Amino acid sequence: MNIRLLIWGLIGLGISIGSCFGQTHSVARKWNEVLIQGIRNDFARPTANARSLFHISAAMYDAWAVFEPGVSPFFLGQKVGDFEIPFNGFPYQLDQRSSLRNETISYAAYTLMLHRYQYSPGFVKTKHLMDSLMIALGYQVGYTSSDYSTGSAASLGVYIGEQINLFGLQDGSNEAGGYVDLYYSPVNCPLNLTLSVPNFLEYANRWQPLQFGSSFVDQNGNAIQSGVTPFLGAEWGNVVPFALDKSSKTDFIRDGHNYTVYHDPGPPALIDTISGNSFNDPYKWGFTMVSAWSAQLDRSDGVMLDISPASIGNLDINQFPNSPTDYPKFYNFMMGGDISKGYSINPKTNQPYVPQLVPRGDYNRVLAQFWADGPSSETPPGHWFTILNYVADQPQLVKKFGGVGKLMDPLEWDVKSYLTLGGAVHDAAISIWSAKGYYDYVRPISAIRYMATRGQSSDPNLPRYSKAGIPLIKGLVELIQEGDSLAGPSNENINEIKIYAWRGFSVVKNPINVEAGVGWIMARDWWPYQKPTFVTPPFAGYTSGHSGFSRAAAQVLTLITGDEYFPGGLGEFVAKKDQFLFVEKGPSVDVILQWARYFDAADQCSLSRIWGGIHTPIDDLPARKIGSLVGNKAYQFANQYFQAFGNIENNIIGFPNPSSGIINVTGVPIDSINDFLIVDPLGQSMKALNYLKFVSGNQVVLDLSNLSKGVYFLVCPTVNPFRILLK
Predict the structure, then answer these.
(1) Which of 164, 35, 68, 33 is nearest to 416 (CA)?
(2) Which residues neighbour 646 within 8 Å (Cβ) at sequence distance 6 or greater?
(3) pLDDT at 669
(4) 494 versus 212: which is more confidently predicted?
(5) d(CA 548, CA 627)
(6) Interatomic CA distance for residues 667 and 661, integer angstroms
(7) Helix (H, G, I), strand (E, B), or coil: what is residue 343?
(8) Nearest 5°: phi and psi at 348?
(9) Residues 35-47 pLDDT 10s
(10) Looking at the predicted structure, is the pLDDT value of residue 464 above 80?
(11) CB of 504 within 8 A of CB of 521?
(12) Domains and CATH numbers, the chain
């Protein structure tokens, strides 16, 4: 499974849109592929990307739902947050439904993306893809009329796109202001990465901006004209969610400003500067483990691992510890990885998984890069959409939503799965970033350098003792002695802290043919395994976005397929020898990442961020639990919209359904309108005529807003009862 390399290769070769996205793929899939490429061409903003994936998926779903009897759109004709999108119905002929639906989907996606990416640094490339797809589908580029009363499907699509764009301008994201924070301000001065100096971190538990030169380069390769990284999304808890509800919401006040936190994980582990617990302090243990795992990024250290599902994966969420004091029982501090034991057999084939022995350093480096989403990042939300698309392409997948019910055509599968996954990653971004913004927690690059600057916390009888210092670990974290190569020409570094870790960018003059390897370095110069222009994402560590996104997505894929396993019991990605890594040369052998379950892939993603030097265990496990809650809730919430609340007979269609009160019913035998009854949950009947708002052609609009919430039936002797849900 070479998901991203396949997509990049086809686009890079200039293959036509129709070929690139597959003639057999649905129109929604083709637009999703364009959207993912648009994300790669944009700034690397996981929060905004998750929001766009959700909004555009919802636009395509709504365009599909208009033509689907008995199901409800999400935005169209609904009130989401404080924003309501009016909709007066769209009569159509059944024999035109397929073509009208594809046209509406295309214009909705095009209109929304045109607005959303107009200021993207790669907008020219993205628009070329968008225009090319429209032309390949036979649609007019530049069509802007939103007057769908004319019966134009193109206008209906434009209307959907425009209205969701208007929703987005008031949803709390500050899209009009470039998504910048309105009141958050960091408490720490930046860490200057251009100098080899001690890190005087004033608040050791709080996030620290990074200072480059005159500009830094984001994960997508875009130069940001600022030497200091601003916090991205500190106030994202204010954004209107998909399925998150008030019961999972807590409001906090800090510095006079409100911070809304969903699924509050509680405060992270704070550094112990009183008792001097050293290695028993969860803060010191966690951040020191990040530096220890950095020592495992050398493929020549002689350690070989079986990275197949025979040895890795098969964790249950109940095995996740609840307290940081129990984390040492879950993570393997010295060797890396966790307590998972793998699978005795592939449950789909009843055959053992084939072992795959590779150097540990190759595996860890590939993980760090693969789950960081590559040199042109679609960021974790987009990455999981590529995995969803891969799963949808597997012949073993039976496209029954939840694994039950009727077999769906590709378009129905795509719009429903995209809405569900889009809603999940959007809510994961809100939940995870709401904690990031409020708890404002420190990253490993700051904490490791800070502790080393303070000294060592292991032995009061040794030099440089400090209760806030880093624990000493023989062979990993030590004091520099006289005669050490790091002592300096005048022995100025004697008793400073050194770390055995990945040696960093200064060693890699040419990443095409040079490996940095692992060795002793000054602790004040410790680096994550990332690009030198990126180093660490520009937002707080707690809680982990990768862990939250991945667990939520794995939960959704499990639920929508009705199966926790990848089709055939195996998902794969091939990282070719000396062709995959971009931080340095490598890997030294082909490395095939393999997963039996979606959760195995998610758990692997979480570990990758520790090997990559981006997250500590303190960031990881709470985010996995949040992601599980978010994914499950998103599936249950989305599934309400997919239920057919009415039967169809004589081409009767009702929408929106569920409804807040106004429901459009088309295909009604007008001459029998007097015979229609509204039946309440107690079986009492009322004439539908009493709730009639107006009649237009064969369309009847009923106003049921005065009725209590609940399930009602529209009953007539000539048709089957039509079920209505008032919400």
Answers:
(1) 68
(2) 69, 70, 652, 654, 657, 714, 722, 723, 724
(3) 60
(4) 494
(5) 4
(6) 19
(7) coil
(8) -90, -30
(9) 999 999 999 899 9
(10) yes
(11) yes
(12) 1-180 (1.20.144), 238-644 (no CATH), 653-726 (2.60.40)
Nearest-angstrom CA–CA distance, 647 and 398? 25
What would the 3-class secondary structure string for 430-499 be? Answer: HHHHHHHHHHCECCHHHHHHHHHHHCECCCCCCCCECCCCECCECCCEEECCCCCCCCCCCCCCCCCEEE
Of 111-115, 273-277, 640-644, the one with minimum mean pLDDT is 640-644
Q: Is the pLDDT of residue 370 over 50?
A: yes
**Would the pLDDT of 424 be above 60?**
yes
Nearest-angstrom CA–CA distance, 444 and 540: 10
What's the rounded Cα separation, in Å, for the pair 261 and 256?
A: 16
- How distant, in Å, are the alpha carbons of 58, 157, 168, 654 from that of 163? 12, 10, 9, 21
Contact between 468 and 273 (Cβ < 8 Å): yes
Which is more confident, 372 or 471? 471
Given CA atoms 374, 375, 379, 385 in this order, what sign does their dihedral have?
A: negative
- Judged against a pLDDT cut of 80, whether residue 680 lies above it is answered with no
Decide: helix, strand or coil at residue 604: helix
Which amino acid is residue 432, in one-letter code?
I
Helical packing angle, 379-393 and 545-561, nearest 10°: 20
pLDDT at 9: 30
Amino acid at 694: F
In one-letter notation, the amino acid at residue 158 is: V
* Bridge partner list, 229: none
d(CA 509, CA 197): 22
Residue 696 or residue 44, greater confidence:
44
Q: Alpha-carbon distance 376 to 372, whole Å?
A: 10
575 exposure class (CB count in 10 Å sphere: 0-12, 13-18, 19+):
buried
Q: Say if residues 218 and 43 touch (Cβ distance below 8 Å).
A: yes
Q: Would you say residue 375 has pLDDT above 60?
A: no
> Residue 645 has what pLDDT?
46
What is the model's pLDDT at position 19? 41
CA-wise closest residue to 502 among 539, 537, 529, 472? 529
**More confident position, 569 or 219:** 569
Please give the residue that has the higher pLDDT: either 175 or 43.
Answer: 175
Are 111 and 140 in contact, with CB atoms under 8 Å apart? no
Extended strands (E) in 55-128: 79-80, 83-84
220-to-41, 303, 319, 385, 430 alpha-carbon distances in Å: 7, 33, 35, 18, 22
With 0-12 / 13-18 / 19 or more C-beta atoms within 10 angstroms meaning exposed / middle / buried, residue 136 is middle
Which of 516, 517, 524 minimizes the C-alpha distance to 499? 524
Least confident piece of the model among 88-97, 431-440, 486-495:
88-97
Residue 476 has a pLDDT of 98
Q: Please, what sign has the CA dihedral across residues 341, 347, 352, 357? A: negative
pLDDT for the residue numbered 664 = 78
In degrees rounded to 5, what are phi and psi of residue 366? -65, -45
DSSP 3-state assignment of 240?
coil
What is the distance between the alpha carbons of residues 140 and 158, in angstroms, rounded to a whole number?
Answer: 12
Cα torsion angle, 390, 392, 394, 397, sign: positive
| Region 489-513 average pLDDT | 92
The alpha carbon dihedral of 407, 411, 416, 418 has a sign of positive
When comparing pLDDT for 407 and 20, which is higher?
A: 407
Task: Report d(CA 157, CA 100) in Å as an integer.
Answer: 10
* R_g (Cα) of the chain, nearest Å: 28
Can you give the pLDDT at residue 673? 67
Q: Which residue has the tokens 């580029």?
A: 141
Helix (H, G, I), strand (E, B) or coil at 510: coil
